[in-house]
## 1
Amino acid sequence: MSLRDRLSISLKEAMRAKDATRLMTLRLINAAIKDRDIDARSIGNETGVSDADLLAILSKMVKQRQESARAYEEGGRLELAEKELSEITIVEEFLPRQLSSSETEQAIADAIAVSGANSIRDMGKVMGVLKEKYTGQLDFGKVGGVVKAQLS
């Protein structure tokens, strides 16, 4: 079952269950996807966005909510931080399992070998290989530092 189908089914289930938080979050996801579909059609891509692009959208949504939750906690707005954290759990249901630290290390080593990288200048090649293969499974903000350390 495609990611879009899973989202659609979950949206219908949330409507039936009258789960307001889940319904709102799923509608936000659908809105972000539709925005990206419209952008894709405007540049001539009639099929819309791929599942890899959908995973990137979801990853970005998680990251945005993590930053918002952190800001709310620092500002003493714990109820808003909790709301953001509950949205994160809903969005993460549609993301693939995150790689463990040892799996991440192995993925980086494989990407370095595949790309033939041997210096820090080749970091872009390595990141490209990782993004192509592990979108949604890695936090690329953290991975960048590890890649840099391995290449230097």
Note: The chain has a mean pLDDT of 87.
## 2
Amino acid sequence: MGKIKLAIVGLGNCASALIQGIEYYKKYTSQDKVPGLMHFNLGGYLPGDIEVVAAFDIDERKVNKPLKEAVFAKPNCTKIFYSDLPDYPVKVSMGPVLDGFAEHMENYSPDKRFIPAQAEPVDVVKVLKESGAEVMVSYLPVGSEEATRFYAQAALDAGVAFINCIPVFVASKDEWIKKFEEKNIPLIGDDIKSQIGATIIHRVLTKLCMDRGVRITNTYQLNVGGNTDFLNMLNRERLASKKISKTEAVTSQISHEITADNVHIGPSDYIPWLNDNKICFLRIEGEIFGNVPINLELRLSVEDSPNSAGVVIDAIRCCKLALDRGIGGLLISPSAYFMKHPRFQYPDEVAKNMVEEFIEGKRER
């Protein structure tokens, strides 16, 4: 069915895992024994059909470097599970810095933080058009409000589908949804769920409690890690949208009133030696039959960036299906299943069925 031409904003750990995965899964030719994917064949498209044609970053160790080299450049620290990348005919373009760099990072080791390049930003819309990009994935740092809006507008101006993987609200804002509808350009967002991550586990356990008649009284989710995402989030001013996104993803599954004081969900701390390993500590307290107390605790340890890459691969292919079908605007079903903060929240089992119907062409969006 041809290639899916992809542009990536932010060549960090998530992009590294995604690009490695695209190449890794090329060795598989059938659905049998394919590990780690929700869909190997999605509407006729395989993971290896994705082709990166443009990339944007601001770090001096990546800007103007070949894509193959930039994927593994510092401060990237995710697990390398496929190192034999081809010589892509793509060099990383300098994007506008805007609010994509948090100043507190300057106090940390260069190997752990971003180093903004002293280069002029490219004309992003021009690069997108010349590259032939069909879909753009945004992996900007948390808190990049201005930068996210810039790239969302660039996608509109270039006629490129947009997937917003971070907790800045675009695909959950009516004003942006209307813009993508008017130009008939597919949109998926906001804030990617991991394959088996803290949010999806918290949602499932919360829904289980509701289905089994447990009244949840208190719950928390604390996360620690050592990648640039956790370093960036030490600036608590960048976390407003992140906390809203993660909290609503969980509380949307609670059918009774619960106050903000009884729910705490969000990043906790930066531990450099953890690198891309993310550790989640989760607790749910509640009452069962006869108001008898119950509590549940869970510890999850997972390589953070590959954990979201498998979901993004599906989101990219869903965007391509929409393009093939001439469908634009918010893709409701993929957003509900793949994202923490979609415009419309659904239980995960409902959203999964919606996505399957979308893939089969039984549901328009």
Note: The chain has a mean pLDDT of 94.
## 3
Amino acid sequence: MKVAVVGATGMVGEVMLKVLAERNFPITELFLVASERSVGKTLRYKNQDYSIISMADAVAAKPDIAIFSAGGDTSLEWAPKFAEVGTTVIDNSSAWRMDPGKKLIVPEINAHELVASDKIIANPNCSTIQMVMALAPLHKKYKMRRVVVSTYQSVSGTGVKAVRQLENEIAGIKGEMAYPYPIGRNALPHCDVFMENGYTKEEMKLAREPQKILNDRTFSVSATAVRIPTAGGHSEAVNVEFENDFTINEVRQILNDTDGVTVQDNPDTNTYPMPIYAHNKDEVFVGRIRRDETQPNTLNMWIVSDNLRKGAATNAVQIAEYLISKQLA
């Protein structure tokens, strides 16, 4: 299995290599790809040094799978070039997510939709992945009508520049700003760019992507996305109205039985999900499970996950693992 990691020097790229190694992904040849300024530098994978190569050289190598985490513009330009030579691309940017001809995949939910002709596969937004992991089994049982979500997102979701800004602020150092305001001791209701409707792009991803993943437009999602001064891990307060009623014990049981979901929900022992517990883990953690007492058939939950792992790298690697298991790549 010839594998290319595109954007190998970025935050997600580094985690991608870590996840590939941890999961003993079957690689016979590994190609590490980054921007022209990084070509020739070396990165270590499984105690071996690899030289970073250019996009053109990676396409010429015709890898079986290319996992992209290099930004939307790069994906739009290069993913089709890889696909043309027979490579299956798994793309972590927003470039292809809402393209009607491309599938948006969370393996535990809809990997069965993939076929050999799917040469560009979209990895959903990090915030979307953790939310649908918890909502999908409940939707199947109770049928969602409306979801209201408020996110509390780590600076790592913006990238290394934002992590450095937070670290500088903690240390009292003036440096380059990733955000228009300080992030330390602050909360910015501003994730990604603002759109004409007043929502940010991140909020619209949360509104649209779940409908595509679940192949169902009968429910709606309203989102407010907020950046907070945590170094890793996204949290979400989710309020979901169902068509059918539920019991809290049954909800807990359904979530307990869902692959990739871990319930942490015991107020008596102060047990609930937090980013510091989700760090470096692949599960989606769910807690604060309680009935909304203001209207019928409505549930509140608190959902936390490591945005660089299940929210990005791990989900992409899981897609690749599925492709191999079904001999689709």
Note: The chain is about 35% helix and 25% strand.
## 4
Amino acid sequence: MNKKYLYQVFFFFFLIITLLGCEKKQEDDSCLSFNKAPVTKIEGSNSALVNQEIILTVSFGCYNGCGQFGSFDEVISGNATTITVNTKYEGCVCTQDAPIRQASYKFKKSQAGTFDLKFLQAENTYLIHTITVQ
């Protein structure tokens, strides 16, 4: 067998292996997670008028720098609403700080009364913000 032919065959196989090895990989969800966040502080008005929307600033902790606000989960029982802050952690490489983030919670009622907003801090521990609607 000719050396030139042997080199061409080797080059051809090397080229095929190199091109197949550079296949683009699909994004995986291994660097995406969701978690409940402990509420640390609530700021905002304690009174409102019927059908008036007030906005509360809710501060919550994240476990690392990739943590951001995800959503609020609400469970309403009479005049009490239990609220859980869900965080979204996106990214495989995160700073190891534990930042406090903020989100806006909107409150509006069509009837007068006293309403308790119970924000989850830890298992069975809540930070309660009472709003009187007139």
Note: The chain has one helix and nine strands.
